[in-house]
Specification:
The protein is mostly beta strands. It folds into three domains: 55 residues, no CATH class; 185 residues, Oxidoreductase, molybdopterin-binding domain (Sulfite Oxidase, Chain A, domain 2, Alpha-Beta Complex); 121 residues, Immunoglobulin-like (Sandwich). It is 9% helix and 30% strand. It contains six helices and 26 strands. The strands form seven sheets. It has a five-stranded mixed sheet with strand order 7-6-15-10-11. The protein is globular and about 70 Å long.
Length: 426
Amino acid sequence: MAAPKYVDMESQDNKAKEDQPFTHKKISRRLLLGGAATTAIVAMQSSLGKWIQVSAQQPLLKIDDPTKRIGPGPSVAGKRSPFEHPVRIKSDTSSRTPLQDLYSSLTPSDLHYERHHAGVPLIDPEKHELLIHGMVDNPMVFKLTDLKRFPSVTRTCFLECSGNFRSGKETMNPQEICGLTSQSEWTGLMLSTLFREAGVQPKATWFLAEGSDAAVMTRSIPVKKGFDDAMIVYAQNGEAIRPEQGYPMRLLLPGWEGNTCIKWLRRLELSDAPFMTREETSKYTYPVKDRIRQFSFEMDARSIITYPAYPNQLERGWVEIRGIAWSGRGKVVQVEVSTDAGKTWNAARLQEPVLDKAHTYFRYLWQWKGDETEIMSRAIDETNYTQPTLQQLIDARGSQINGYHMNPITAWQIKRDGRVLFKYIN
């Protein structure tokens, strides 16, 4: 949806009444008290003593001179300004982060993407337990209060669904293309701490992580990852982890497929082999030429320009191209931007700090002179992996867009009239 345009209604005094979209006389008491929304985007007016509508889905608001009236006092919980209304696109099983509306690499908790297999369970933390058993010397059960007694750790990293790519039309924004990724600051404890408490046996090479949702979501995870950087997290962005993200606790595997980071975690079973569950046999596997790729845990390096992007409208002059880049294999060391459809590439500026397995914000200053062109970005991580084109992915896998781990370079078309459209891929 295009941003509302600002109009000073006082400058319209010489116009006929019927030419004015809103006047005080035309606004009924029912409209004001009932909060009825109109059916079209309406122009905003001056901020002093004027009527405004911030979107087609929100009611008219009366804005007084803020220096002439004492405003509301402290509230129990803060909320966004009525002028700010980022929303997630949702389906029956997922909600996508509006990447184009974010100002940094961090995602507000309420805009974090969601992907569920059987809805969000309601769990009482006082009754919830985490069982660790199997090939361990000391099978153990932990409650949330037990986990909070261990030394805590906080880290910032991204999560991403392995099926995070869509194409098909020019009028798609970053959220629609790859909005199944988000970044948070997570707090909890290292899984290695619990492994040592339970005494994981030397021959144990895999563990099963099981959730408490109606799907009883399960995935097999190598023990090596558990001892490396895996965490059990119970807080997100400074508050208790939200139900949609696994309250009261979830498994966090930095850099790995989101589906392996089991939410509403209730059981860890140690074994000497993978468990071959439904989610790693019939699901989350895909063909690569004449073979089937399974246990493709790490998310590959990727980037996307979030501004300018559809539905932005450019004007000639200097433009700061902005976006995010990330890699499940470590740090992003460079992001390159092309403003001539991939003919030449230039290094973008990375926003510090550049964190391991985290979204990295990038910027590139560009002067648009009104020519039709395409802009795009590509990420390079510390393993020297470079984000591929779609054709390179097809050449490597022998298939079209029909699987997981699709991370192609994404291009935006800049039209002569300033329109920005997604270069869709059939």
